[in-house]
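INTERNAL TRANSFER SHEET
From: sequence group
To: structure group
Subject: DUF155 domain-containing protein

Please process the attached sequence and return the structure record in the designated field. Keep the field labels unchanged so the import script can parse them.
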Amino acid sequence: MMSFSRWVAKTSFDGAFIRPSDSWCRKFNMRFLATSSASRSSSRSSNDSKDPDSLRPKPKSTTSLRRSASASLPIRSNPTPTRSDIQTVFTLATAQRYLLSRIHVHSGLPLNARILHESWWVPKWGPKDREGEVFVFGNGSFVCWGLDEDDARIFAEDVLGRIPGLQVGPLKDAETEELEFVMDPSEETRLQGDLIILGNMSPPSSEEINPVDLPPMVLPSETLLARYAFSQALSRSTALSALEVSLDDYLSSMALLPHSLEQTGKPGMSRTALIKKLGQLMKFRQGLNLNRENFSDVPDFYWAEPELERHFKSLSKALEVKSRTDSVNEKITYAGEAQSVLRQLLTESSSHNLEIIIILLIAVEVVIALIRDGPELWEIARGGSKENHGDSAKF
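Return from structure group:
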């Protein structure tokens, strides 16, 4: 499987590009098909026989990674003696969140695993010929350095999958992100284009955040905190991708409601089902903005460490976490407005039904009163009419 960065480097001159998560591509395809005009479709169909690649929708040209991917080409094409081989950073999200407190009581975890700030860190794991390290975060994703996708899925199944109660809200399909990194002691640690460079770093300003008694690890200890910062940004992007896919599925399930209202004047869904949909929408908003591990705030860990904060923000910006978060919030707001209209319709429908029930109850009470007191009322009415007739005759 060709990694994201290699694919960008290979095709940067012919304009082809793919986003670093499958959910981005799926969402773009939907937007592309929805906004294509009839004239554009006809012109494209005339060229399909000439160029099979014309069938593929082109992604947005404003993607940050596309604009900056060329910046990594000099490093990729000009290796130096101090530079290591290019390796993979692979991220996998398998659940809505992980209960990290369940990990330390599990006996099957690698012996060298330990807590590292807001993650569970495994400094050495994998096959002997390609060992790597893993950062497990509470947002339901983990980041593998120096391991490929197959290794990441094995870790998810053989390690995390065997910890009871760890995964909350397992995903149907795991979400992935893939970047690449290179180690070079002669360079500064940074994100260049779509390539992470692990090199020189200044020591942290606070001794409290610097881990002590470090176990043996695969990658250099000098860049451990930088790898942690990059990993946290990557994990957020992958967790956001999972949320985007879930929200798209939710919006697809609600897509027929406007058509049903237009055709029948009814939502075509029971009151209970609509309330459940409203609960799902509130859950999306909570997961996006209100949880401790949200997508908008910079973690407190970086406030006193500007260099680590720069690494975290650089990768978050390259993966467009903020703009994607705003986009998800807009979709949730629109869905909330639609839900508000449906709640109004349900309230009016309930009021109308109550009015009908009250009218029916009054009618039933009138009928019962007529059956029970009808003869007596009839006699009273007849007696009154006879008296009136007698009085009129005397007159």
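Handover comment: Residues 321-394 form the longest helix (74 residues). Confidence is low (pLDDT under 50) at residues 1-63.
Transfer complete.
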